[in-house]
Each structure stands twice: as C-alpha cells, then as structure tokens.
Amino acid sequence: MLVVRRCSVVEAASSNLVQRRRLLSCSKRNDDVEKVLSIISRRWTTAEQLKESLKSSGVFLSNELIEQVLKRVRFSHGNPSQTLEFFRYTGGRRGFYHTPFSLDTMLYVLGRSRMFSHVWQLLAEARRKDPSAITVRTVMVVLGRVAKVCSVRQTVESFRRFRKLVPDFDSNCFNALLRTLCQEKSMTDARNVYHSLKHGFRPNLQTFNILLSGWKTPEDAEGFFKEMREMGVTPDVVTYNSLVDVYCKGREIEKAYKLLDEMRDRDLKPDVITYTCIIGGLGLIGQPDKARGVLKEMKEYGCYPDVAAYNAAIRNFCIAKRLGDAHALVDEMVSKGLSPNATTYNLFFRVFYWSNDLQSSWSLYKRMMLAGCLPNTQSCMFLIRLFRRHENVDMALRLWGDMVEKGFGSYTLVSDVLFDLLCDMGKLGEAEKCFLEMIEKGQKPSNVSFRRIKVLMELANRHEALQSLTQKMAVFGRPLQVHQSMESPTETPDSLC
C-alpha cells in the first residue's frame, strides 16, 4: 500500500514537472517571437543591419518560430519589406527549408502590399530550392491577392504562370482559380473562365461545387446543376447545400425544403450548414420564430447547431429589432458550451450604431473584451464611427489603445476616423501620439490624415514635431531597393505580368 502511494506521488510530481517545463517552453517561445517581431518592426536603413540584429539576438530561428512570427506580421499588418528580408535571411541558412505555410504567409503579406514583382521572385526562388513548398494553397493565396487589385485577364495570366512553378498543375489548381474569381470578381467572370479553360482540365465534383456556391439566382444554379449531372458528376451534401442556400437567398423557401427531402431520399444527411441556410432564409421572409424552431428541429435529426447557426438566428431577431430574443439566444448558445465570436457581437453593434446608442455599444465592447473575444475590423469601425458621431475622445482612445496593445482591427481604416475626431476636438497631442504608434507598428497613416495634422501643427507653431513626423512618413515613400533600402512602394497592377 505504501509503495502504491509513493508511486502515485512520484507520478504526480513527474507530471507537474513536465507541465512546468511545457509552460516555460511556451513562455520562452512567445518571448522569442516578440523579440524577433521587435527587430523586424524597427526602422533599419539597410538589410544588413536587420540581419546583424537577428544574428546577435540569440534566438533559435526554428520553423515553428518563423511561422508564428509571419502569422503575427500578417494579422498586425507589419512591414512587408523587412519581413521579406527576415524570410530570405532565415531561408538562406544551409540545410534549412521554409514550410509551405511560411511561404504562403509571406506571399500573402507581399500580395496585400501589392509587391507583386517580389511575389514572383520569391516563387522562383522556392521553385529552385524546394518545389514541394508550392502547393494548391499557394496558388489560391497569390491569385487571391492579384484578383483584389487586377483585372480578370491579369488574374488568368498569373494563373498560367503557375504552370512552370507547380509540380502538379491539374484540376485542383483550376479549381483554385475558379474559387478566387467567385470570391473576388463576379460569377459571370468565373463562368466565362470556366468555359474557356475547362477543356484543358478535367472538371470534378469540387469544380462544380465551387461554381454552384457562387450563383446568385436559382435559375443559374439549376442550369449548372443540370450540366453537372449530364457530365456524370454525382452531387454531394456540399452541392445540395449550395442549392439550398441560393433558394433561401432568393426567398424560395418551399424549394429549399423540397431539396431537404430529396437529400434524405438519396441518403445524404443534411448538415449544420444546410440548416443554417434555412434559418437565414426564414429570416429573409420575416419568420424569425420559425427559424428559431429550426434550431430545435435539427437536434431531432442528430445535427447540433454551431456558432454560425446561432448567429443566423440571432441576426433574424436583430433585424426584427427583438433584442430580448436575440440576447436569449446568446445565453442559450453559451449554456451549450459555445462561445460568441466577433460576428455575434457585430450583429448587436450594427443595431446600436444605427440606433445611435453609444452606451450600449460601449457596454457590449467591454463585455466582449472581458470574454476574451477580440473585435475584428467591422467591430472597430462600428465603434469608432459612433465615438466620432458623439465626439467621445476618451472611448476612441481606449479603443485605439486596445488595438495597439492586442493587435486587432485595421489601423488604417480606424485611424482615419480617429484622427478626424482628434483634430476636430483640438487634441493635437493625442493625434501625434496615435500617429507615432501607428508608424511604430509599421503602418502608414493615410496622406489625408497626415495633411490634416500637418496644418494643425503649422498653426500651433510646432515645427520641430512636424519635421519629425514628416521624416517618419518619408520612410514609407522611398523607392524599394532590396538588400539596400528597407521600405517598399505599392506596385501598380500593370507591373504584375
């Protein structure tokens, strides 16, 4: 008996030791990520200075750490040129290979800044060193950023350039192009490209599911569904969900319910997405109570609602201005072990914004932060615009401080409204402080905001402070010379191909 107890004590002590080691390891990794991010965020004159600082940091630059750093750069909108230098420095070490995730994240950061020439240079480098790092996801990442700012023709030309870069340039890559066009362009564009290129590829179930998910009218979706069957492609749950969704958005709920019956006849079990579409469709025809009943109905079929399903039902009550019922659904989802996300809160922020309810918005924001749910850009814009409308500087600065500290939201979009408010209220010192915080984050304030602050500084005879801000802003405008200058311009779409 004594031996058993001693063994239990030893096992517990060993388990606690392992747990402490893991916590210490996690803490050190987070510290290393912060240290590297601090190095990347500084304003370096040359790339060599950045590299020397990385070498002397003492941080072991593993694949895991690099992925974490790049992920943080992506979501904090960090400096793309200096991040590229970091990526090349770490990838240039003997025997080291970047993961596909790291490559894709770096390409996203460059594409978002429209540094397309560097995108293709990096892809060529990856092709020479490790072709397997270029995946279908890579194709989607690059085409997604290209399609954001370029024409359909340029997007297709970029797709063709991947033929020499991707080891297996097949239907999956074709599907990546179609998905991009559906998301960033129009269904007409996607349909035209599909018909012009489909003979060079073998359209599969995923091809049709991608295109079906983008149709806006039931007539178009039905026609494409017919073509799919004529080609011998058997529809699955995703296919039916796309049709249900288009019927619901077209307010043809009866047809959507008939599809549910057809799915069950084909032994295809409707999933949570199917029911979420139905809930949204019922809201569009003004039946939020019936939509709420679907939450119970789906449980009877062994399908349990997720956050998105609850959000759809909550949205219906928010649209109907029945906030009591909406709050009751939030409480219900929490009782089921589901955590409200930023979309959940945005449903209420929208109502409060349009009803000009500052206090309710602020209370909800504090509740959101207390729950550990970080706002997204939409949340921030609802809030900052409402603060601007009420000329509430304290709340606006509190929001900005949380953004800077926790790294959520778009600094560029929020700062434009914030600087308008601060300048209108004569808070030049606060505006300058926020301006500098933004630059320290590697984010370029808009020229409109800078000109407004410049005028106020001139009127206040703060010439030295203005000169300092001008120098800091000039950093963002210098031409990029890789390995010499650390800042980048925005490339025009014409320089892409």
From TrEMBL:
UniProt xrefs under Gene3D superfamilies: Tetratricopeptide repeat domain
InterPro entries: BIR6-like, PPR_rpt, TPR-like_helical_dom_sf
Pfam families, alphabetized: PPR, PPR_2, PPR_3
Listed SUPFAM superfamilies: TPR-like
PPR repeats: 236-270, 271-305, 306-340, 341-375, 376-410, 411-445
Domain of life (superkingdom): Eukaryota
Keywords: Repeat
Name by which UniProt lists this protein: Pentatricopeptide repeat-containing protein
